[in-house]
Amino acid sequence: MKWTKKDLLDLESLNREEISMVLDTARSFREILDRPVKKVPILRGKTVVNMFFEPSTRTSASFDMAAKRLMADTVNISPKTSAVQKGETLLDTARNLEAMKIDLVVIRHMSSGAPHFLASRIKSGVINAGDGQHAHPTQGLLDMFTIREKRGQLEGLNVLIVGDVTHSRVARSNIHGLIKMGARVSVCGPSTLIPMGIQELGVKVCYDLDKALAEADVVNVLRLQLERQKKGLLPSLREYSQLFCVTGERLKKAKPGITVMHPGPMNRGVEIEPAVADGASSVILDQVTNGVAVRMAVLYLLSGGEGSLSEAIKKEA
Questions:
Q1: Which pLDDT does position 230 carry in this prediction?
Q2: In percent, how much of the chain has pLDDT > 90?
Q3: What are phi and psi for residue 207, nearest 5 degrees?
Q4: Quick one: CA dihedral 100, 103, 107, 113, positive or negative?
Q5: What whole-number distance in Å separates Cα of residue 67 and Cα of residue 71?
Q6: Predicted pLDDT at 89
Q7: Dihedral Cα 248, 250, 256, 262, nearest 10 deg
Q8: Are residues 194 and 166 in contact, defined by beta-carbon separation less than 8 angstroms?
Q9: Preceding omega of 195 cis (within 30 degrees of 0)
Q10: Dihedral sign (CA 291, 295, 298, 300)
């Protein structure tokens, strides 16, 4: 199979085979990350521009590191250093950068659809690193990669997503990707934080966390987006924590060996108990490591990579 897409904007537009191709490619890069020398010159001569118009630690560092592991040149643009501060449009900024002969643009933006807008107007490949409440495709891919790594498969697993689903682009990308790969997905949270009509995506809705955990093989705990809770969607953080915090006591009633995930950053003691976040069931730091491998795979494929990765590494070495 050959990768044919110029951009990675969401997981809705990928089919099952394309998702598998990214995950399989990432597996080869994951092995490279354990080597003493963690670089391969596959993207030598390519330039990746990281445009992050929202605060980000994990994702921006992960993309930058992924590009450097492939020996690409990187340029990092933030709102404070961008001419957008002087009134330049996003499109003009991108076009000026493209005139400098760049190859890929990674963009995070507070407005849903901003990556799609750019992708339809510039020739360089565009990767969505999170747009508004819409999508975060590489987080969805790295979550699937981590689940497959820990559980051996995605097909048939019960994956529970807990928390602020309404505001979560991570939840949407997880739902679209996991269902395509044959997993059964449930969501659980306060009714005010569960979008109306989400069942139409093939998702089961539950408002009782203890009941939902009893059926789950994997629980993905979402960050409670505190900055968006001024609209009176929650009576109090204390009540939210009592009803929806994933605690050690609650996990005692779950299936043995349940896998605990969180996309970060965590509100410890609000949505997840510290002992659970750091406990034996947690794969949260594995998600961070795997994120670099998945982003290496995405950069490689969107740069025209194809065929056997091991042959490509050998050829370029």
A1: 63
A2: 85
A3: -110, 0
A4: positive
A5: 6
A6: 92
A7: -70
A8: yes
A9: no
A10: negative
Q: Look up residue 21 and give its DSSP letter.
A: H
Q: Do residues 136 and 169 make contact, with C-beta atoms less than 8 angstroms apart? A: yes
Helix 16-32 and helix 284-302: axis angle, to 10°?
110
When the pLDDT of each residue in the chain is averaged and rounded to a whole number, the result is 93
Residues with Cβ within 8 Å of residue 138, at least 6 apart in sequence: 8, 59, 63, 127, 128, 129, 291, 294, 295, 298
| Residues 92-135 pLDDT 10s | 999 999 999 999 999 999 999 999 999 999 999 999 999 999 99
Amino acid at 29: F
Beta bridge partners of 129: none
The pLDDT confidence band at residue 86, using thresholds 50, 70 and 90, is confident
pLDDT tens digits, 167-221: 999 999 999 999 999 999 999 999 999 999 999 999 999 999 999 999 999 999 9
Q: Where are the beta strands (DSSP E) in the chain?
A: 47-52, 73-77, 104-109, 125-131, 158-162, 184-188, 204-206, 218-221, 259-261
Nearest to 79 by CA among 45, 103, 114, 44: 114
The answer to whether 69 and 32 have CB atoms below 8 angstroms apart is yes
Whose structure tokens read 């494929």?
A: 301
Q: How many angstroms separate the CA atoms of 289 and 283, rounded?
A: 10
Q: How far lies 266's CA from each of 65, 262, 285, in Å? A: 22, 7, 12
Phi, psi (degrees; rounded to nearest 5) at 283: -120, 25
